[in-house]
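Troubleshooting: if your tokenizer reports a length mismatch, compare your output against this known-good record of 81 residues.
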Amino acid sequence: MMDPVTQFWLASDGVRLSVLGAGFWLIAAIAALMEWRRNRERPIERLEKVGWVPWMTIFLTAAFVGGGMLAVGLPALLAQR
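Known-good structure output:
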């Protein structure tokens, strides 16, 4: 029985692109959650603790890259089945 890493590297390009695209969408979902948490209303004394991570940029980049990977990988994966 092969381990998951070996199965991933031996899979077709469509499978790999789809898995990586889904991973990027997971990163985008986490970034959207963190942006939502930062934009909630806070007490005035915590206003300086907003944070420095550009969550919206991470969300947009990960969603765009993940969507492109899924757009390329899914048709090849579905045609294979």
